[in-house]
Each structure stands twice: as C-alpha cells, then as structure tokens.
Design brief:
It holds the Pfam family GILT. It contains ten helices and five strands. By secondary structure, it is mostly helical.
Length: about 240
C-alpha cells in the first residue's frame, strides 16, 4: 500500500510554506491559495525512505498521473497530444492528472524579492510555463483542464494569444489566468513546480517525465505505450472497460 508522509513532516512543511508566503506580503486569500498549491505538490514525495510504491492501484478510485513537462518541448507536446489525451478520453473517470510545467528550467530568487526563470527553450517557454501553471491552479474541472492544456501545447509559441484563444474555445476564464501569469502568483506557482520537479527520485533526466501512482515506471515504455502501462496498474476486477 502507499506510504503517506508522516504528520510531523507535513506540519513542518506547512509552517515553512506559510512563513514564506507571509514574507511575500500576500493577502490572506492569496496565502491560502498558494499554501494549498504547495500541499498538492508535496504529494510528489514518494515515501519518507524514498522507496518505490506498489505497482497497483488497489482500492483507489482514480489513478494518479503526474506529467512533468515543458510548454515548448516537442516530446512533451507529443506525449500529451498522442498519448495522454487519447488515454484520458478512453477512461476520463479513472484518472487524477497533475500537470507540472517546468522541466529543466532554473529558478533565480533575486535580492529585490522577485523570481526569474531560465527555461530550456528560452523566455517564451518560461512565459508559457507560467500560463500553464496558472491554468492548473484556476481551472478546477479536470476534463476542461486537459482540453485547455492540450489546446495550448499544440502551438504554444505565442503563449498569450494561444492562451486566450484556447480559453475562449473551452470556456475558461482567461482574465484570471492572465492576471495570475503576470503577477506574484504565477511566479510562485512556477517556483513550486520547480521544487516539485527537483524532488523527484530518480532525478529528471528526460522531459517529459511521467509518474503513475506516485512512482516513475520505465519511462521508455510509458512514452511509447502510456495506455498499456496505465492498464497494468489496475487489478483485473477494476480495469477500465477500454483496457
């Protein structure tokens, strides 16, 4: 069975996050939003002793899938459009997908309190990664989020324009996402994505990196036959009908 983080670790992490948020002079509502985001990302930790978890969903209602990617990465684009979306469409009620846009970027915390990023595919990708990060925070319906992320990554070289067009297409509140991407919220969300990515074990060597049930299965197999690997995680009596 999955080993979850112990209570002491959880409380220490939560306290550290709140202290950091207070230092940013965010409003109480913003602090709550950001701390909730961080707690979600904390689930990336496998176990306290870094051991792998069982390759079985057992009694879980949804199979957790983590997608660690970059907005302008061709391999990320291919995985999301050719593997993730078709698999999700086969069994939308069987997945809990977490998008983590960051990849091999670097985070720089400046003396004035601002945060800047250096991304593998340049400043445009950093901008796109922020928009994707804000989408994961503000689009609550998973089905809509999958459609929105896949719409943007299909052609993400003008992030604002495509973000706005995809938002209109899928009835997403673009104003909220845009405001997030241009402010402290977007900076912090992308920073947290970086921390989550850096905590992965084994460490990221290829983008995208995919977690299934909070572990990293053999990535070559996942990127070649995601649906087949996903089906192997379900016990025979609870496999999606499409498996």
């Amino acid at each position: 069975m999955i080993k979850w983080m112990d209570e002491t670790w959880f409380l220490k992490s939560y306290t550290r996050i709140l202290n950091h948020l207070i230092s940013l002079n965010l409003t109480p509502l913003q602090q709550e939003t950001m701390s909730n985001t961080k707690l979600i990302h904390s689930s990336h930790v496998l176990t306290n002793d870094n051991s792998l978890m069982e390759n079985s969903v057992k009694d879980m209602t949804y199979l957790p899938v983590g997608v660690y990617y970059e907005a302008l990465c061709p391999d990320s684009r291919n995985f999301i459009l050719q593997h993730l979306v078709p698999s999700f469409n086969k069994a939308p009620n069987s997945f809990s997908i977490e998008f983590v846009p960051y990849g091999k970027a670097k985070t720089h915390e400046n003396s004035d309190g601002s945060i800047t990023f250096a991304c593998q595919h340049g400043p445009v990708e950093c901008h796109a990664n922020k928009i994707h990060s804000c989408a994961t925070q503000h689009v609550k319906d998973q089905s809509v989020l999958v459609k929105y992320i896949s719409c943007m990554i299909d052609n993400n070289y003008e992030p604002e324009m495509i973000g706005m067009l995809c938002a209109k297409k899928h009835n997403v509140n673009w104003n909220k996402i845009y405001a997030c991407s241009e402010g402290k919220e977007g900076e912090l969300l992308l920073k947290l994505n970086g921390e989550a990515t850096d905590k992965l074990w084994p460490q990221v060597s290829f983008i995208p990196t995919i977690l299934i049930n909070h572990e990293q299965p053999r990535q070559a197999s996942v990127l070649k036959d995601f649906w087949g690997v996903v089906c192997s995680y379900f016990p025979p009596d609870s496999k999606p009908a499409a498996c």
